[in-house]
Amino acid sequence: MRLPLRHRPPATPEPLRRCAHLEALAEASVGLPLGPAARHLVGAGGRGRHGNALQWHLGLDCHDSVAQPDWEGRIEIKLISVWQRADGRLACDRIKVCEASVDPWAKLANVLFVFADRLTRVVLGHAFFHLGAASLGRLARSWGVDPHFGRPDLIIESRDSAQGMSPAYYLSARWLVGEGLLPEHPVHWGYRFDNRWWRDVRAEFAGRSPLVTLARVDSGETTPCSRCSGRLRVDLDRVFEQGWAPAHHTMPLGDRCALRGHVVVDPRRLPEPHCASDEELFAAVEGRVPDEDLWRLADRVPEPEDHGH
DNA sequence: ACGCAATGCAGATTATACTA
DNA sequence: TAGTATAATCTGCATTGCGT
After folding, report:
1. Which domain of life is it from (predicted)?
2. A113-156 pLDDT, tens per residue?
3. What does the pLDDT look like over A58-77, one tens digit per residue?
4. CATH fit for domain A2-178, picks 3.10.129.10, 3.40.600.10, 1.25.10.10, 3.40.50.2000
């Protein structure tokens, strides 16, 4: 259920904060696959595991739900899962800001939003956001409007549980679009997402998510599996038209490929990685990066002398 | 009537506490 | 210390509702 906001919006915006080091990392994160780090990281929780993986790649520890912004106490980092709509524009879900006991206005004062593709978990881009006078004025309308019928962009929602409530602040997906954080025009990167198919496949394979494989041939009825010596039967016309298609793994079936759903994707929809080779990106998306080959973005981006604070 | 997008619920998973 | 039960967590997905 929805509740009234607990924190009154500030009368004046907080100052703009920036950091040249974080800007360099954000720029380098294009084409960063989050899957391997999410899988291998100890303590990376199920729901927030890709957000934790991003923080690890940026050189941070995975501490969640702290009142202070993630980066040097100045800038909050938020991972947004995105997917393509039918017309090629990007869409996203609403995001959690913080627990209802924490001041969301302070958290949102300066934010780095990082957008990752929902199907492949590859970073597509980012946006720095400052809650300045204009955007503060818009978001402040959420204070005082009816939580249900006023359609606020910042809400508190709590879930009934036996032990009481666990209320938290959330930002609507509408707000992210309205503030221009997602591109308004169709994009060439990322994939559509079919949640019905995703759910059915996960249900069929004991809750495990489908494995992603890149199409390596233009035509025919199968494409080779990069994890084993088998092949994937797939509608390649659909792959190159829609971006991806469900696939069936034929025998022989390697250990990693057994008991999993499969999807084949058009590799041309992956972004050009800024800080990795194409082969590193492909291996990560296809889930064939051994622990010892796991690399960290922060180790590849030199820290500038002047952070420009 | 149909397909897609907005909305809100709760499943799936991990963290923590507790027991043997 | 290992194993089991309970609590806490947030995003993924089902449903609703709208527009064509």
Report:
1. Bacteria
2. 888 888 888 888 888 989 999 888 888 878 877 666 666 788 87
3. 888 655 556 677 788 888 88
4. 3.40.600.10
Q: What is the pLDDT of residue A164?
A: 43
The nucleotide closest to A52 (CA, C1' atoms): C10
What is the DSSP track for A159-215?
--BTTB---EEEE-HHHHHHTT-S-SS--SSS-B--HHHHHHHHHHTTTPPPEEEE-
For chain A, the domains span 2-178, 195-269
Near-strand B residues (CB closer than 7 A): A 1-2, 43-47, 85-87, 91, 93-94, 148, 151, 157, 159, 172-174, 203, 207-208
In angstroms, the CA A165 to CA A67 distance is 19
**Res A23 pLDDT > 90:** yes
Per-residue pLDDT tens digits for A256-294: 787 777 888 888 888 899 999 999 999 988 888 887 888
